[in-house]
Amino acid sequence: MNTESPVSRRAALCGIVVALAVPSGLVTACSSGSTGSSGSAPTQGGSTGSTGSAGTALVALADVPEGGGALVDGPGGKKIVVARISASEVKAYDATCTHQGAIVAEPAGGTITCPSHGSQFGAADGSVKKGPATTGLRAVAVRVSGDQVVLA
Ligand code: FES
Q1: This model's pTM is above 0.90
Q2: Domain count, the chain
């Protein structure tokens, strides 16, 4: 008893210590590991991919004159042309001209003009008003949120 007792006590104590230490270490490692890798990385990646667009402020509404518009940087540095159709209505398009890829100019008088070869697009719907472009500008969904034009 006397010889086995200290050994079994040590073994028992070590077992308890190990039993207490290992699970807590694993729990800590697992929780921080799963939170750090699967929690934030994919969420942020997903957010950036899908939401990176939605809700992103493009320009202050005050900087988009009614009947005109503004050329702004969208997510990823992509140029977006924002047209203010009325006091409360805005439209936006990928500013890449569908003819040969030049960046169109800011809307003026309801028309978006490409400086390269003179194609013209309607500010209200992006449709071709004058060639050489044969395809309208690609619409970008936007909405007015407070005093900002944001991606929808
Ligand atoms: S690139 Fe715009 S009209 Fe040619």
Answers
A1: no
A2: 2
Nearest atom within ligand 1 for CA of residue 131: 3
At 58-92, the pLDDT tens digits run 999 999 999 899 999 998 889 999 999 998 899 99
Strand order in the sheet with 79-84: 69-73, 79-84, 90-94, 139-140
Quick check: 79 and 103 in contact, CB under 8 A?
yes
- Kindly state the percentage of the chain with pLDDT values over 70: 66
Residues in the ligand 1 pocket, defined by CB under 6 Å = 97, 99-102, 114, 116-117, 119, 132-133
Q: Where in the sequence is the domain holding 75, given as residue range(s)?
A: 57-151
Residue 53: the pLDDT is 73
Kindly state whether residues 117 and 88 are assigned to the same domain. yes
